[in-house]
Design goal:
The complex is a heterotrimer of chains A (about 300), B (about 575) and C (about 325). By secondary structure, chain A is mainly α. Chain A is built from twelve helices and no strands. Chain A is elongated. Chain C has a domain of about 160 residues: MetI-like fold, CATH 1.10.3720.10. The chains are: A mainly alpha (about 300), B alpha/beta (about 575), C mainly alpha (about 325).
Chain lengths: ~300, ~575, ~325
């Protein structure tokens, strides 16, 4: 068939200037300019930075003790002293949220890593091997996707028992199917690309084709999904922690904090509102950044 | 009247049907609101008189298509008219509001879009889509519109229109879909039809039928046509007047015969010289840019040396159910060192599959493919002669050895280069694959290869995305040559490129062939390109080789009816001076 | 057509079997012995005779393949055994709890489709860039909010401050509104995102240019041309959501203290009541399979290309 490929606009634009065109500006500088021009994205990056800081060095943001409170100051509303108010034991809610960040974030990251490792390798094998292997792997993925992810996580928790790490594993197992699908689709897309065919035709060995062409080009979309899945995992981990399947009571964990405040929902709104807001803001930031990664990749092509 | 462009035959009076004056169109940078808008059409003026066919000719990026869309008020998102006027029957269309403009679209100006395969709504019956044109302008009621739609489809040359009207677009071929789009464009009997590359996506024989049909219908109804095309041949066959655009400006305008025979502007001169029109080849004579076949090929009366020898080649693809598609059937040809053999045919003729078989990328169903004395088909195994299990590794090794001698330049330079590699790495990749030299040597060889295809040295460190289409195809050629192969398979190497760039690439290939004694297997749908580059040609149709022989003989005196049909369909006969 | 249906039916049965087997593998093979759980774990004071009786009841003494075969045979007959906690029949436990949850998810799905679809259509129809962007940013926010938190905020504001709707319980339609909204918010946001994206793609398609060149109006182009093409991916999403919402009820029913399948599931997970969890997993796979079958029959009606493509493949 006659393919009348429409060349991308920038390709035709530089057709005239074949000589010494300026090199593209540094990637970092371009990324900074890209971000600053988009206020929503800038805000998301700031939120993400704050959350990361809270996870790595909680004491910088909140010096107090998240576990012991001042009984005299119990159930106080938000004020300059207690940004998010205090709970029924007089503990500062802001301090508890900040100190809970590390645990919640690590669980979400672990979930994404598990999903990426398990699903990614399944998808890679399926897409590259093809044939019977592909069929078998994809049938398994079909079945995983027939069961809602939350339920799959719940089943794994039923078997493994409670705890933050177990929650993370459960969420990761449930998310693996998504990565398997995306990875396989990308591998198939890249495998069919003209440059892979060209490499094969010019004598490059299959292993080298996989390492030098297929993987590097299939990786991008998978990472975009990873960023998106990070947001989804935060939601899933905090939901399971809210249901009480996470860490034991005194440990601050985002979902558990909301669950703790639930008994005071009529009298002390701040106990549930602020931790939930932090979860929502973090997820929103993760989603926005993932979208930015996606469009930047789109511009690259 | 005071236009600065070299206009002759412009409107002396108010008789113009469409008058575009000083039209400027800009696109917002990046498609969004941020950044400076980029002007792509810089003050274009042109006129179409009633019943006249005006062709706007230009290469990609010339602004011809944008101009056409601006006339209809159908610019894509981010596009905006920033100046000038578009007068249709005396009214300035740019001043109309959306509602009034809607009344002009379809009723006053019809539109035939570029790609028929995607221009019809896939989920609605084609008859309804034709009827809709009448309905929105209140020219018929529901039942009347449907009945009229069948008539219009018949008029557009669609066989069995009452059956077709009830079908969905995917049930029709590309040519049939374009006829549906023609029926839509002409449904309301508009005074003007804007046709944006109406046949570029179609095979050449279908293209001819469609263009003939449009010409007939518009002449009958006295409809004027604004024909947008990249193909000077099509323009020369169809237009009364030609407007040549380049870089968003009109560089030349005038009666078709004058523009073609005595182009004034240097750009037009280039374009007419580069156009691989068949007529041009016939008059310029044989062997214009082709390398002479080395005399050693058949000098001493012995059988000519053959670097590629294909015998009884066949390839079947299983179709759903028990059916089988015979993509290639009983194809035989040979190529001597230093010779170019072209396989020409329309889409689905099996020419590309044949190329893939020769490259060993596809397993043959039957036949022999000898390249430099090695049977490729035996190495990949065929369906009737599976390769011995024990010898698989040896066969794979030998196949890889063969790849050193047979390289490929593929169709689409926008897809065939890994976007993450630098150009230097792309060219050096085959060296790396075969472990030739160390890093420094490889870099040197790649640079030498790049120089050979006339790429400037600074290109080596850039990425493919920073290069133009022509440059990319040069990179692909440099990659193919870096291992010093005996045979290069070129699969439609110029079909994604503009004509002026096409000519450069073809000249480059012939020059290299002469220099290196390469044998070329050249796959193309374009007889004009084949005429320019090939020594011998094989014409393929539905998987079979219907005719083959020296280019001069086949083109001048075709033996097979299909070859004649193909030749007659090639546009641009008027390009040849009488 | 009949052959195609038969094939799809066999595929559906395969998915059901695989879901059963997968959940069996996760729940019964991994550590966590129902007997320990039933009898109180390590500190159990049960006599060996008691243990033996329970083991016998759950068929635990036998080799794994035999256990699995028995469980599968029972499951085919709709028997998923008895709850380890209450001793009640798993099937009745689930079917008793299901109607309340179906009401909730049905209502939530309706809200999600109406509002999610509405926002997407408005956003793609709006000419004003600011309005467009505002409308399009709503789904992005909606999809990021944890359902348990949304529910609690709604209770705070609507039930306690405004005293408008009940915060808890299963008491008629009033008590359905808040949990319904809570459940519909992320689902509707998801629908809006998918539909808006599909609409944008469809509106940029060349066939829309053809329609505009005919002189067709904006409403006609959006509703007659783009929406029909954009509805297919959205429908797929709605189908997947139907199954997911059933599970989302675990969170929402907990927040609003509603009785239903979600509560049953949460309780079962909490007590490691394996037979009940497995029953719920198989039920949700069943829902998924039925919904996909229904969608498969609906697709050809919406997109004529689907029939021939599928029929040719069959």
């Amino acid at each position: 068939m006659t393919v009348l490929a429409t060349p991308p606009a920038h390709a035709t634009a530089d057709a005239a200037s074949s000589g010494g065109t300026a090199r593209p500006p540094g990637r970092v500088r371009a990324a900074v300019r890209f971000t600053v021009r988009r206020p929503g994205l800038l805000l998301s990056v700031l939120v993400a930075a704050l959350v990361l800081l809270a996870a790595v060095a909680p004491a910088v943001l909140a010096g107090g003790d998240p576990l012991t409170g001042v009984p005299a100051e119990k159930l106080q509303g938000p004020s300059a002293d207690h940004l998010f108010g205090t709970d029924q034991l007089g503990r500062d809610v802001f301090t508890r949220v900040v100190h809970g960040t590390s645990l919640s974030l690590r669980a979400s990251a672990l979930a994404v890593l598990v999903a990426l490792a398990a699903g990614g390798s399944l998808g890679l094998v399926a897409g590259f091997a093809g044939g019977f292997v592909d069929d078998a792997v994809m049938r398994l993925v079909d079945v995983l996707q027939a069961i809602p992810r939350l339920l799959l996580s719940l089943a794994v928790i039923t078997a493994l028992g409670f705890g933050t790490t177990k929650i993370a594993l459960a969420v990761g197992v449930a998310a693996a199917a998504v990565f398997a699908r995306v990875m396989r689709a990308e591998v198939l897309r890249v495998r069919g690309a003209g440059y892979v065919e060209a490499a094969r035709a010019s004598g490059v060995r299959p292993g080298a084709v996989l390492l030098r062409h297929v993987l590097p080009n299939a990786w991008g979309p998978v990472l975009v999904i990873a960023a998106l899945e990070f947001g989804v995992s935060i939601l899933a981990v905090s939901s399971l922690s809210f249901l009480g399947f996470g860490a034991a009571p005194p440990t601050p964990e985002w979902g558990a904090l909301v669950a703790d405040g639930r008994n005071f929902v009529a009298t002390a709104w701040w106990l549930t509102t602020f931790p939930g807001l932090v979860v929502a803001a973090t997820v929103l930031a993760a989603n926005r950044i993932s979208r930015a990664l996606d469009t930047e990749r789109g511009d690259d092509r | 009247m005071t236009d600065e462009a070299a206009v002759d035959g412009g409107p002396e009076d108010g008789s113009a049907l469409l008058e575009v004056r000083d039209l400027r169109v800009a696109y917002a940078a990046g498609g969004g609101s941020r950044g400076m808008p980029r002007e792509v059409v810089h003050g274009v003026s042109l006129t179409v008189r009633p019943g006249e066919v005006v062709a706007v000719v230009g290469e990609s990026g010339s602004g011809k298509s944008t101009t056409a869309h601006a006339v209809l008020g159908l610019l894509p998102l981010g596009g905006e008219v920033t100046g000038g006027e578009v007068r249709f029957q005396g009214r300035d269309l740019l001043a109309l509001d959306e509602r009034r403009m809607r009344a002009v679209r379809g009723a006053g100006i019809g539109f035939i879009p570029q790609d028929p395969t995607v221009s019809l709504n896939p989920v609605r019956r084609v008859g309804d889509q034709v009827a809709e044109a009448l309905l929105v302008h209140g020219l018929a009621d529901g039942r009347g519109a449907r009945a009229r739609a069948v008539e219009l489809l018949a008029e557009a040359g669609l066989p069995a229109p009452h059956v077709r009207a009830r079908q969905y677009p995917h049930e029709l071929s590309g040519g049939m879909r374009q006829r549906v789009l023609i029926a839509i464009a002409l449904a309301c009997r508009p005074r003007l039809v804007v046709a944006d590359e109406p046949t570029s996506a179609l095979d050449v024989t279908v293209q001819r039928q469609i263009l003939d049909h449009v010409a007939g219908l518009t002449r009958e109804n006295g409809t004027a046509v604004l024909l947008i095309t990249h193909d000077l041949g099509v323009a020369s066959d169809r237009a009364d007047r030609i407007v040549v655009m380049s870089g968003g400006e009109v560089v030349e305008e005038g009666p078709a015969a004058r523009v073609l025979r005595e182009p004034v502007h240097p750009y037009t001169k280039n374009l007419t010289a580069a156009a691989p029109g068949l007529g041009a080849w016939r008059t310029v004579g044989r062997g214009d840019s082709r390398a002479a076949v080395p005399s050693s090929a058949s000098a001493d009366g012995t059988a000519p040396r053959r670097i590629v020898d294909v015998n009884g080649l066949g390839k079947d693809f299983p179709l759903p159910g028990k059916a089988v598609l015979h993509a290639v059937e009983d194809v035989s040809f040979h190529i001597a060192p230093g010779e170019t053999f072209a396989l020409v045919g329309e889409s689905g003729s099996g020419k590309s599959t044949t190329a893939r078989l020769v490259l060993g990328l596809e397993r043959a169903t039957a036949g022999r493919i000898e390249v430099a004395g090695v049977d490729v088909a035996a190495l990949t195994g065929t369906d009737d002669r599976p390769r011995p299990r024990g010898g698989r590794r040896a066969a794979a090794r030998e196949l890889r050895g063969l790849r050193r001698r047979v390289q490929v330049v593929s169709q689409n330079p926008y897809a065939s280069l890994d976007p993450r590699f630098s150009v230097g790495d792309v060219i050096a990749e085959p060296l790396r694959a075969f472990g030739v030299g160390d890093r420094a040597e490889r870099r040197e060889l790649a640079a030498a290869s790049a120089a050979q295809v006339a790429l400037p040295p600074d290109v080596l460190t850039r990425r493919p995305a920073e290069l133009s289409g022509g440059q990319r195809q040069r990179v692909a050629i440099a990659r193919a040559l870096v291992l010093r192969p005996d045979v290069v398979v070129c699969d439609e190497p110029t079909s994604a490129l503009d004509v002026s760039v096409q000519a450069q690439i073809l000249d480059l290939l012939t020059g290299l062939q002469h220099e290196l004694g390469l044998a070329l297997l050249f796959i193309s749908h374009d007889l004009a390109v084949v005429a320019r580059i090939a020594h011998r040609v094989g014409v393929m149709r539905r998987g079979r080789l219907v005719e083959s022989g020296p280019v001069e003989r086949v083109l001048a005196d075709p033996a097979h009816a299909y070859t004649r049909e193909l030749l007659d369909a090639v546009p641009g006969r008027r390009l040849a001076p009488v | 057509m009949a052959r195609y249906l038969l094939r799809r039916l066999l595929q559906a049965l395969f998915v059901l079997w695989a879901a059963f087997t997968l959940s069996y593998a996760i729940l019964f093979v991994l550590p966590g012995d129902p007997v320990d759980i039933k009898l109180g774990g390590i500190e159990s004071t049960a006599t060996p005779a008691e243990i033996a009786a329970v083991r016998d009841k759950y068929g635990i003494g036998e080799p794994l393949p035999v256990q699995y075969a028995k469980a599968l045979r029972n499951a085919v007959q709709g028997d998923f055994g008895h709850s380890v906690q209450s001793g009640a029949d798993v099937r009745t436990t689930i079917t008793d709890a299901l109607p309340e949850t179906l009401k909730l998810t049905g209502f939530a799905l309706l809200l999600a489709v109406v509002f999610g679809g509405g926002i997407a259509l408005l956003a793609t129809y709006a000419r004003n860039r600011a309005i467009r962007r505002l409308l399009l940013s709503i789904p992005a926010v909606g999809i990021s909010m944890p359902a348990f938190w949304v529910g609690l905020v709604l209770i705070q504001v609507v039930s306690f401050q405004w005293r408008a709707l009940p915060a808890l319980g299963n008491d008629g339609f009033d008590s359905l509104v808040l949990p319904g909204i809570t459940m519909a918010l992320p689902a509707g946001a998801f629908i809006a995102q998918v539909l808006a994206k599909s609409m944008t793609t469809a509106l940029a398609a060349p066939y829309v240019d053809t329609a505009r060149a005919k002189g067709a109006g904006r409403a006609r182009i959006h509703l007659r041309h783009a929406l029909r093409n954009a509805s297919l991916p959205t429908l797929t999403v709605v189908g997947v959501l139907a199954g997911n919402l059933l599970t989302e009820s675990v969170v929402v029913e907990t927040v609003f203290s509603r009785a239903g399948l979600g509560r049953v599931t949460a309780f079962a997970v909490d007590r490691q009541d394996i037979p009940v969890v497995q029953g719920v997993v198989v039920l949700s796979a069943l829902v998924f399979v039925v919904v996909s079958l229904a969608l498969d029959l609906l697709y050809p009606v919406l997109d004529p290309r689907v029939t021939t493509a599928r029929a040719a493949a069959a």
